[in-house]
Amino acid sequence: MASSHSGEIHLFVGPMFAGKTTSLLRRIKSDVDNGRNVAMLKSSKDNRYAIDSVVSHDGVKFPCWALPDLMSFKVKYGHEAYQKLDVIGIDEAQFFEDLYEFCCKAADEDGKIVVVAGLDGDYLRRSFGSVLHIIPIADTVTKLTARCEMCGKRAFFTLRKTNEKQTELIGGADLYMPVCRHHYVNGQVVAEATKSVLESQKI
Ligand SMILES: [Zn+2]
């Protein structure tokens, strides 16, 4: 049965180090201060900081549920407790394959406010996971920016510092840096050149 009050979906995207988790935590904390019932979810794939907390790069923490998928949350949390929830925060949303399905159900049918933070693009600037799929069902979409590590200008992209090729390579400042368009293009050229030198040496 549909909930009496209607839900909402808010999305924060951007490159790494753009303050997505910080924005999500700020929003969730103000909901807690306003007496709303809140649950925070993140992917169990990302255990860089802590398994039971969402932690931003600047060290702010909030307790959370680390899950392999979103649709199992209702059962794990308990049906009754779920009914009482007002707000659901989702961090690192690019790792959830069932993001669209979950957000649709939570906002449309269950009347929840869903606040989502995730990478819009991977290190090759390709759409990452299902994050972009929820734009058509979202109330608001905010693209945050970081500071380019090379020149200090606004950074829109995430550059991988190593030659690893898998899309889901989880890491922080050791593996990735935020860059502006100019330094993204330059950085990719350098990465490709390094790769071809390494490959030519193998032969
Ligand atoms: Zn730059």
UniProtKB/TrEMBL annotation:
GO:BP terms for this protein?
A: DNA biosynthetic process; response to stress; thymidine metabolic process
Does the record bear Kinase in its keywords?
yes
Answer whether the UniProt record assigns the keyword Zinc to this protein.
yes
Q: What class of enzyme is it?
A: transferase
The EC number(s) attached to this protein equal 2.7.1.21
Q: Which Gene3D superfamilies match?
A: 3.30.60.20, P-loop containing nucleotide triphosphate hydrolases
Q: Which GO terms describe its molecular function?
A: ATP binding; identical protein binding; metal ion binding; thymidine kinase activity
User: Which keywords does UniProt give here?
Assistant: ATP-binding, DNA synthesis, Kinase, Metal-binding, Nucleotide-binding, Transferase, Zinc
- Please name the pathway: Purine metabolism; Pyrimidine metabolism
What does the record give as the active site? Answer: E92
- Please tell me where substrate binds in this chain: Y176
InterPro entries in UniProt: P-loop_NTPase (IPR027417), Thymidine_kinase (IPR001267), Thymidine_kinase_CS (IPR020633)
Its recorded reaction(s) are: thymidine + ATP = dTMP + ADP + H(+)
List, alphabetically, the SUPFAM superfamilies matched: Glucocorticoid receptor-like (DNA-binding domain) (SSF57716), P-loop containing nucleoside triphosphate hydrolases (SSF52540)
Q: Which domain of life is it from?
A: Eukaryota
Instruction: Give the family from UniProt.
Output: Belongs to the thymidine kinase family.
Q: Which PANTHER family match?
A: THYMIDINE KINASE, THYMIDINE KINASE A
What is the name of this protein?
Thymidine kinase
